[in-house]
Design goal:
Layout (H helix, E strand, L loop, with lengths): L14 H9 L5 H20 L6 H18 L8 H19 L11 H5 L2 E2 L5 E2 L2 H6 L8 H19 L2 H11 L4 H7 L4 H19 L1
Antiparallel strand pairs: 1-2
C-alpha cells in the first residue's frame, strides 16, 4: 500500500512576528510587511491627494510612514500593528502635505470627495458631505449640477468662515478618515476633533441656509 506523505504546513506569521524577526536581523522580513501594506499606502495617498501634492510623492511618504511604524511599534503599549501602521502612514502623508504649505489655503475642489458616501466609525455608510451640510437629495438627475454649485460655495466658505482647526478637521474628514483617525493625525482628543467637525458643519449649514 502506497504511503501518503502529508504536505508540509507553512504557518503564516503575523505582522508582529515578522517585525520581531526583522528587529532580530532578518532584514528580508520587512519586505513582507511592505507587500502586505502597499495597497493601504496607495489608498491613503489617493484619498489625501485632494489635499495637495503629487500622488506618487504621497505614496513614497506613505512608505516612509510604514517604515517608521515598523521601527517604532511598541509590542506592549500600542494596539495591533495594523492600527498603528494606519496611523503612521496617514500622519506621514498629512504632514508632507501640510509642510508643503498647500493644506492651509487649498480649496476642497474635488467633486467626488464631497459627493461620495461617508464611512462612520462603526463602518457603516452615511450621507455624503453635500447631503450632510446642504441637505440636498442625491437621487434627482439634476443633482450633479446643483451639487457642483454648492461645492463651489462650500470651497469658498471653508477658507473664510472656519478656524484653522475646524478647516483641518473638515478637510481630513473629506478624505474619508474617521474622527478617531483625524484626532490621531492632528494630536487631538477624539472628542475635540468631533467637536471641531460638528462646529464646521454647523457653520457651513448656517451659511448655506
Amino acid at each position: 500500500m502506497r504511503r501518503v506523505v502529508p504536505k508540509r504546513v507553512i504557518m503564516e506569521l503575523t505582522d508582529e512576528q515578522y517585525i520581531s524577526e526583522y528587529r532580530e536581523g532578518k532584514t528580508k522580513d520587512i519586505e513582507v510587511i511592505y507587500d502586505r501594506y502597499k495597497n493601504l499606502v496607495r489608498a491613503k495617498a489617493s484619498s489625501m491627494y485632494i489635499l495637495g501634492g503629487d500622488e506618487q510623492d504621497l505614496i513614497q511618504e506613505g512608505m516612509i510612514g510604514l517604515f517608521k511604524a515598523v521601527r517604532d511599534y511598541d509590542f506592549g503599549r500600542d494596539a495591533s500593528f495594523a492600527t498603528f501602521a494606519d496611523l503612521c502612514i496617514s500622519r506621514q502623508i498629512y504632514n508632507a502635505v501640510q509642510s508643503s504649505g498647500r493644506l492651509k489655503h487649498l480649496p476642497l475642489n474635488d467633486y467626488v470627495s464631497l459627493t461620495a458616501d461617508r464611512i462612520t466609525e462603526e463602518g457603516d455608510e452615511s450621507q455624503n458631505l453635500i447631503e450632510e451640510i446642504a441637505g440636498e437629495p442625491s437621487s434627482e438627475p439634476e443633482t450633479a449640477f446643483i451639487s457642483q454649485e454648492t461645492v463651489d460655495e462650500i470651497n469658498h466658505l471653508i477658507d473664510t468662515i472656519l478656524t484653522e482647526s475646524e478647516r483641518d478637521v473638515f478637510k481630513l474628514h473629506a478624505t474619508g478618515l474617521t474622527t478617531s483617525g483625524i484626532a490621531a493625525i492632528l494630536s487631538m482628543e477624539p472628542k475635540s476633533a468631533d467637536n471641531a467637525l460638528q462646529r464646521a458643519k454647523m457653520k457651513l449649514k448656517k451659511a448655506l441656509s
